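Title: Comparing notes on inverse folding

I've been comparing how different people in this forum approach sequence design from structure. To keep things fair, I'm posting one structure and asking everyone to reply with a full sequence. Here's the target:
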């Protein structure tokens, strides 16, 4: 009996060790340990990363841990500073092309406030705030220009949008323009007044949605 018990114990240990551990950030897809560690490393450039485990799902051959990553209060590096120098200046929309490949006219944003979201498809914080972005767009409708800008190519964005819709006008393939404008952090949200001038720069809007909504309303 002792040998049978020992064999069972070894089999159980082997079964447990065979399980692979995966991580999900918010509602994102499961990812490997290496990819997860890489994301945490990139986020650490913005400040001290805090890791909160929301839940763990155990399956026969895998363990999936759902987590939330955030930057510890008081340690955030201001990567928006480079772009903040544009406050008071006209946003150069004429440097970009719309989803149909046509270059925007210089006055394309005139007459309405504009909300611009800088993002990319593999950015967990960008993805996490999508419901908030869609909520703002739904609230203000065509009273405000809503534009999403990314360095990702059009095919990558279109594939992403089939699974998770963002109700904004989309500008893709903008790596050159974003580099010139010194967009160094994602997500970054920028608000323009009715004349197309930059008036506010902020990070994600998850924790200050009401403040952002009130600010947009003040621009109407």
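Reply #1:
Here's my take.
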């Amino acid at each position: 009996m002792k040998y049978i018990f020992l064999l069972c114990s070894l089999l159980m240990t082997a079964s447990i060790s065979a399980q692979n551990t995966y991580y999900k950030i918010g509602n994102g897809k499961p990812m490997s340990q290496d990819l997860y560690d890489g994301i945490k490393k990139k986020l650490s450039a913005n400040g001290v990363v805090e890791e909160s485990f929301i839940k763990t799902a155990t399956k026969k051959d895998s363990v999936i841990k759902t987590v939330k990553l955030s930057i510890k209060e008081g340690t955030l590096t201001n990567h928006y500073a480079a772009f903040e120098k544009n406050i008071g200046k006209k946003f150069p929309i004429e440097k970009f092309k719309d989803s149909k490949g046509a270059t925007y006219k210089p006055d394309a944003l005139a007459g309405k406030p504009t909300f611009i979201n800088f993002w990319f498809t593999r950015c967990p914080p960008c993805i996490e705030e999508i419901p908030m972005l869609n909520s703002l767009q739904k609230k203000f409708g065509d009273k405000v220009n809503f534009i999403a800008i990314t360095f990702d190519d059009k095919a990558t964005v279109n594939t992403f949008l089939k699974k998770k819709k963002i109700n904004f006008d989309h500008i893709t393939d903008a790596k050159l323009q974003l580099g010139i404008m010194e967009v160094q952090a994602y997500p970054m949200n920028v608000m323009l007044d009715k004349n197309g001038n930059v008036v506010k720069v902020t990070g994600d809007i998850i924790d200050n949605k009401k403040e952002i909504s009130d600010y947009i309303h003040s621009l109407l």
